[in-house]
Amino acid sequence: MSKSHFILKFNGPGIENGEIDVHDLAPALVAIGNLFQAANATINGGKAKASVKVRATSEGSFEVDLTLIQTLIDTTKTFFDFAVTNKDGIAAANDLAELVFKFSTALSVPAGGLFFLLKWLRGRKPDKVEEKGGDVTLHIGDNYFVTNKNTIRLAEDIAVREQAKNLVSVLERDGIESISARQTNKPELRIERNDIPSFEIIEPEEVVEEIQDEERQMTLQIISLTFKEENKWRFTDGAEPFNAAIQDIDFLNKISINEISFAKNDYLICKVREHQVRTSKGLKKERIITKVLDHKQAPRQLRLM
């Protein structure tokens, strides 16, 4: 049997005199128990089982003293025996707790486990992933995060991610602004309300079938325009509104030097590429304006005759 002790702390104006509403506490405790069961199943499979026990509470914000207890399924062996006879070894209770809660910012390089990784990613996908020795380095632009293969396994496991999301969802309740986790003799990891989107599960869309990829000339009325990086304007072709990216560099350059100006209900005659695919989530169509042939201004006067 192996054990790891850690503190789960709830902070916010809704917690008074070290008291918390049971309806806020219960879902969080169930989620932390389910989270470690899912993490244990992902890392250790059927070789061991994990459970979380409540030890005591501490006044202040509201602290819950928890113990993660892990036992081998094969009760005739100790953890040492298992390590000798199993090449891949087993992640003991303290290892599992670190895979979830560990974090470090030494030398200004973020590193750590599941929760700190999700906070750092903020729903983004890494531009590049490098493996060296036991480390995995994730790159986004000029920034990077150092972790390990088992943390990546947890981050990619749906059951683990669902329970992590369930735990931080307590922050959606009035009066609770943050939760913190602290292992014995380790720094405190803090999750705040603005971190909630980082724990959302974004399922990738798998392209199943290419349906349409063609270019045609269209007349489009401008509903709204933007000059941000993606240049996705909103148009209508007389049927329904849609967004389309503009890739005509000459046209965009003329706008940037004020050669072209726009007014309400102006329209463009342009070449539009329509790309339609069937994905795992249904049909998806993307429109891209490859060339603007003409810019027509909307009528500025009424006709009496």
Description:
- It is a single chain.
- This protein has 2 domains: 2-103 and 148-199; 207-296, OB fold (Dihydrolipoamide Acetyltransferase, E2P) (Beta Barrel), CATH 2.40.50.
- It is 24% helix and 39% strand.
- The chain is built from 7 helices and 15 strands.
- The strands form 4 sheets. The protein has a 5-stranded antiparallel β-sheet with strand order 2-3-1-9-10. Strands 11-12-13-15-14 form a 5-stranded mixed beta barrel.
- β4 and β5 form a beta hairpin.
- α1 packs antiparallel against α6.
- The protein starts with a strand and ends in a 9-residue tail after the last strand.
The secondary-structure element order is: EHEEHHEEHEEEHHEEEEEHEE
Terminal CA distance: 93 Å
Tell me roughly what share of residues is in helical segments.
10-25%
Question: Stretches where pLDDT falls below 50 for ≥5 residues?
Answer: 75-89
Number of DSSP helical runs = 7
Task: Please tell me the total number of domains.
Answer: 2
Strand content: 35-45%
Overall pLDDT confidence: 83
Oligomer kind: single chain
Which structural category fits the helices and strands? alpha+beta
Largest sheet: 5 strands, antiparallel
The largest sheet has its strands arranged as: 2-3-1-9-10
Backbone shape: elongated
Q: Nearest-angstrom radius of gyration?
A: 27 Å
Number of strands: 15
List the helices and strands and how they pair.
Elements: E1 2-11, H1 22-44, E2 48-58, E3 63-72, H2 79-85, H3 93-101, E4 103-104, E5 111-112, H4 114-121, E6 128-132, E7 135-140, E8 143-148, H5 149-155, H6 158-168, E9 178-183, E10 189-192, E11 207-224, E12 232-236, E13 241-246, H7 249-256, E14 267-279, E15 282-296
Parallel strand pairs: 13-15
Antiparallel strand pairs: 1-3, 1-9, 2-3, 4-5, 6-7, 7-8, 9-10, 11-12, 11-14, 12-13, 14-15
Helix pairs in contact: 1-6
